[in-house]
Amino acid sequence: MNAVDNSLHRAEAAAVRTDWTRAEIEALFELPFPELMFRAQSLHRRFFDPSKVQLSTLLSIKTGGCPEDCAYCPQSARHDTGLKATKLLDRDTVLAAARDARDHGATRFCMGAAWRAPKDRDIDDLCEIVDEVKGLGLETCMTLGMLTPPQARRLKDAGLDYYNHNLDTSPEFYPQIITTRTWQDRLDTLASVRDAGMSVCCGGIVGMGETVADRAGMVHALATLPTHPESVPINLLVQVAGTPLTGADRVHPIDFVRMIAVSRITMPRSMVRLSAGREDMTDEMQALCFLAGANSIFSGDRLLTTPNPGGDRDAALLARLGMSTDANAGSV
Ligand code: SAM
Ligand code: DTB
Ligand code: SF4
Fold first, then answer.
1. Beta bridge partners of 307
2. What's the rounded Cα separation, in Å, for the pair 182 and 180?
3. What is the largest CA-CA distance in the chain?
4. Which ligand is nearest to the CA of 243?
């Protein structure tokens, strides 16, 4: 390594820290907005091209009827949301959706199942799906609930690139949102995914009635994992009638943008995904999120069970902003 490379390496190591304190992260949330945005943009430009965003498309491969009690989720069998439960989709249906996503510019295909955890007998079918989706030239991601280390290894061996498993909120607020699985269960699944050699997609939700300290607590938990998640989805709660969180106080757009900026500053090499909730956001709010360092979105007109803006609105927004899509968000 020559002297220039060496000093670049040191500069990068100084920016990518896993020793954040909660007080430091709370202080970022308190910064004057222009200062916060300047810091987020400076780091964003160091590691990515700020005019590029990556597109991922979601497909619910097994919808509804979930035994867990996540208060935000329309797919929990404990909430009466009128959603019809389905079985695992067959391979050809999944492949047709993946091909369509790819043809509309997605580079990653994320398959979600409303399970507490997959059964070992499901893993054969899932591995076959992963192999075929990968064969289309897409990055693969799944979110299936808790995974054991052997299940994670089998999915990795089949070609699964990413596993999504969110911490969702701060450790303190977590028990008010989910009681059927613990915070430690989440960390254990994240460790199984890491140890199997997969990339981690892990983030959470804003707008569930949490405090700013809870938001800082969630970012702290993510940014002090042994390795930062490669993808950090920041969701704005989609309020679905029949879930306990319907009617929760709405988050001010600027406070949501702060969450994106703090995620960008604390995890500067990660893809920060402006995830659920874009249907309720103005173009201006989304533009501020991109300025704050968001560099990935979900494309397509559905998330898992709820609506998403879809290709035409997104294409118009990116064109208006002079932005374009790129599989790595112009990673430098
Ligand atoms: N069942 C699996 C699990 O929970 O691990 C995977 C699917 S689950 C739907 C994936 C994530 O979607 C949740 O962790 C949560 O962060 C997010 N999510 C679910 N419902 C949401 C909603 N109404 N608004 C925003 N995000 C939501
Ligand atoms: C994530 O953090 N957000 C996505 C993905 N990971 C699986 C899911 C959002 C779901 C929004 C509610 C729904 O459409 O059911
Ligand atoms: Fe089930 Fe996942 Fe929804 Fe929780 S978030 S109820 S585990 S589908």
1. 302
2. 7
3. 62
4. 1
Q: SS3 of 300, please?
A: coil
Q: What is the DSSP string of 51-68?
A: TEEEEEEEEEEE-S-BS-
205 lines ligand 3 (CB under 6 A): no
Alpha carbon distance 228, 222 (integer Å): 7
Q: How confident is the model at residue 8 (pLDDT cuts 50, 70, 90)?
A: low
Q: Note the ligand closest to the C-alpha atom of 238.
A: 1
Residue 145 Cβ inside 6 Å of ligand 1? The answer reads yes
Type of residue at 14 = A
The span from the CA of 204 to the CA of 1, in Å, is 38
**178 CA distance to ligand 3 middle (Å):** 9
Q: Is the pTM of this model over 0.70?
A: yes
- C-beta 207 within 6 A of ligand 1: no
Average pLDDT, the chain: 95
Q: Two tokens at 288?
A: 């501020």
Is the pLDDT score of 322 beyond 70? yes
Q: Could you tell me the distance, in angstroms and rounded to a whole number, from the CA of residue 276 to the centre of ligand 2?
A: 6
Query: Residues 239, 44: contact at Cβ < 8 Å?
Result: no
